[in-house]
Amino acid sequence: MEASPTYVGVASCRECHAAEYQRWRGSHHDLAMQPAKASTVLGDFGNATANEGKVTTTFLRRGDKHIVQTDGPDGVLADFEVAYTFGVHPLQQYLVAFEGGRLQPLPWCWDARPKAEGGQRWYHLYPGQRVTHTDPLHWTGRVQNWNHTCAECHSTQLQKRYDAKADRYDTKWEELNVACEACHGPGSRHVAWARQDPARQGPDDGLVLHLKTSEAEAWFFATGEQTAQRRMPLQSNAQVETCARCHSRRTALIEDYRHGQPLADSHELALLDEGLYRADGQIQDEVYVYGSFVQSRMYHKGVACADCHEPHGLALRAEGNALCVRCHDANRYDTGQHHFHAPATPGAQCVDCHMPERVYMGVDRRRDHALQVPRPDLSVKLGTPNACTGCHADKDAAWAAGEVRTRFGAERLRGPEFAHALNAGRSFGKGAPDMLRALVQNADRPAIARATALRLLASWADAKTERVARRAVEDADPLVRAAAVGLVVPDAAVPLLSDPIRSVRIAAVRALAGRAALPAKALEEYLDAQKIAADQAQAHVNLGVFFAQQGDVARAQDAYEEALRLQPDFVVARANLADLHRAQGREAECGRLLREGLARNPRAAALHHALGLYLVRIGERKPALSSFTEAVRLDPSDPSFLYVHAVAVESVVGKAAAAPLMKQLQQRFPSYVR
Q1: How far apart are CA 454 and CA 574, in angstroms?
Q2: Residue 559: how many CA atoms within 13 Å on its side-chain side?
């Protein structure tokens, strides 16, 4: 039997797994991406038109070709042929091939829902935002590139194959859609085993990754219990992490993915960062399930994706509350005494309270998989959403909190949560560092929340935080170890250069870049991880920061300049390059860069702030004050902007004028350390 398995394609799997194949056929995975032809294109290409801003887009057919006439990379109307469809329901997107091997998704989507639900129409992903060809979000730009952003999760065994020197892609895949081997791994050894004489078949069936749980792990209701439990603990997280490879907000660290390895060994996972998640962990931006699910009690009790979802056809195991009562006693939970709504009404559905929906991409309703108990009391205190007023839109959070208190008792409003700590950390609220340190040390809280708390503690990197982080670098969860490594002294961080998980090792390299000598192997691994995303400006910013910490100014400058070549409007790259020039005493070059950036992006608060600092250094205090004032106006949530503005006011106007600003700083950001 061959040592290294290869991909054989779905046709080979179908020979023995006809039932699984039939369920998969026509599923969202099967239809994830298809060549554009009459049988796969759902949208109206019968000379239909749609308007957005000043651009009228036309969708038409020319023979077998589907053509979209819209604004191109130069802003001029042109004809673009659709090469592939992307997705199928509730929307379908369309990909256009460009030079350099690029595929770009058009901003116009076809709403595939029935007409009675508002569908069967063209709609724009950025309505009213005036996304012109000069905007980074324009459909022809790098931010919207399929090869980097979308391809890994809509194809099987994708290889991006980006040539940084030529700025070209030669992207390949084994299968155009998400097929069997996307989840189970290359199947040649398994096929060879299956085709042997049964008498010669050994116990090793050659399958790279088994994802089905055993009968011994099945769920049952113990006597007197209202919630099911596994007969034995889940033996592996492979199933959840296989799904999470695509159903998560993450960054790839390697191109040669190995099925069955821990997810954190191949990807760097997003934490509960502001803008992605609410402070209580509810979904906000497009975060794709996993970061929510690992917060849930169900995940920690051993629930896996296939317990609720049939993995081949992707349908739910049962509809409505029938799904939930497979593990939750219907006599306790599917009653008016629990949900206080009439049977079969929306409020009586478990998911409406415990998995509220949020709409993404205009029409795509996705449920929050944190499976939380509604906490309108947190809405009152922190402004987070809650399922109650999500339906009862005519009521406020205080009303909902009162209803919960009346119906369930005050203890329901005092349950386990981490929202107060993360909210304080994000806003520099009173007691933030102590609350965050307490969260990190609370092993009963989800690892993703504890890791987020560690990241926030970077603003309070004192001796107390270092003691907490020293314990955290030995945590069982790689998310926690990776977040902690930057908060400890080098002698405690160095061992993590040999951590068994790649994302932790890379975090250790990042933390030690300017503090300790790095082994060649660790350095190579870090640089290779950045090469994976060499087509994106952020990877070059990462390199610029790393080389600057290493004292390699020339390579840092090259990296920042490459980031700006790829994305001229990238504020962080420009600000960092300007600061690199400042450190070298090249003030004129620093000022030029900042002014160029503001000419391109006059609403970039960070550039106004940096320009103010530059003007102070060259003795232009009054113009500097104007820059600091504008930075605060554009981003009043950054306490450092407010502090520097107050100092500038004191310097130019006087103490009396600055005093109210300092008071405002203390009131709004009581934990801010200057």
Answers
A1: 28
A2: 25
Determine, yes or no, domain membership for 535. Answer: no
Contact 479, 271 (CB under 8 A): yes
Q: Which of 183, 239, 185 is nearest to 30 (CA)?
A: 183
The per-residue DSSP string of 564-631 comes to HHH-TT-HHHHHHHHHHHHHTT-HHHHHHHHHHHHHH-TT-HHHHHHHHHHHHHTT-HHHHHHHHHHH
Question: What is the count of structural domains for the chain?
Answer: 3
Q: Would you state the structure tokens that stand for residue 116, as one six-digit string?
A: 């009675």
Q: Is residue 523 part of a domain?
A: no
Do 256 and 377 lie in one domain? The reply is yes
Check if the beta carbon of residue 91 is closer than 8 Å to that of residue 363.
yes
Distance from C-alpha of 225 to C-alpha of 514, rounded to nearest angstrom: 55
Q: Which two tokens stand for residue 445?
A: 């809280």
Q: Is residue 222 a contact partner of residue 211, using CB atoms and an 8 Å limit?
A: no
In the predicted structure, residue 202 carries a pLDDT above the cut 70: yes
For residue 257, name the pLDDT band (cuts at 50, 70, 90).
very high
> Is 421:460 a contact under the CB 8 Å cutoff?
no
- Assess contact for 378 and 419: CB atoms under 8 A: yes
Can you tell me which residue has the tokens 């949900």? 339
CA-to-CA distance for 248 and 226, rounded, in angstroms?
A: 31
Q: Rounded CA gap, 443 and 653, in Å?
A: 51
Q: Is the model's pTM score more than 0.90?
A: yes
Six-digit token pair at 513? 């870049």
Cis omega (within 30 of 0) for bond into 90: yes
- Are 135 and 264 in a shared domain? no
Label residue 560 by pLDDT band (50, 70, 90): very high
Residue 244 is predicted with a pLDDT of 97
pLDDT at 2 over 70: no
Sign of the CA dihedral with 235 first, then 239, 242, and 246 last: negative
Whose tokens are 């840092």? That residue is 556
Residue 272 within any structural domain of the chain: yes
Q: Which of 484, 478, 476, 386 is nearest to 436 (CA)?
A: 484
Confidence of residue 264 (pLDDT cuts 50, 70, 90): very high
Could you give the 3-state DSSP secondary structure of residue 80? strand
Structure tokens at 304: 């896996």
Greater confidence (496 vs 235) lies with 496
Count Cβ atoms below 10 Å from residue 212 Cβ, excluding itself. 9
Q: Look up residue 595 and give its amino acid.
A: R
Task: Give the distance, in angstroms, between the CA of residue 523 and the centroid of all CA atoms in the same chain.
Answer: 26
**pLDDT reported for residue 203:** 87
Residue 213 DSSP class: P
**273 and 374 in one domain?**
yes
DSSP state of 174: S
Tell me which of 398, 429, 460 is where a domain ends: 398
CB atoms within 10 A of CB 309: 15
- Let me know how long the chain is: 674
Whether 157 is covered by a domain: the verdict is yes
Residues 391 and 263 in one domain: yes
d(CA 607, CA 601): 9
| Residue 74 lies in domain | 31-169
Q: What is the mean pLDDT of residues 319-324?
A: 96
Q: Which residues of 173-206 are buried (b: 16+ CB within 10 A; e: fewer)?
A: bbbebbbbbbbbbbbbbbbebbeeeeeeeeeeeb
Distances (CA, A) of 644 to 477, 630, 641, 666: 39, 12, 5, 13
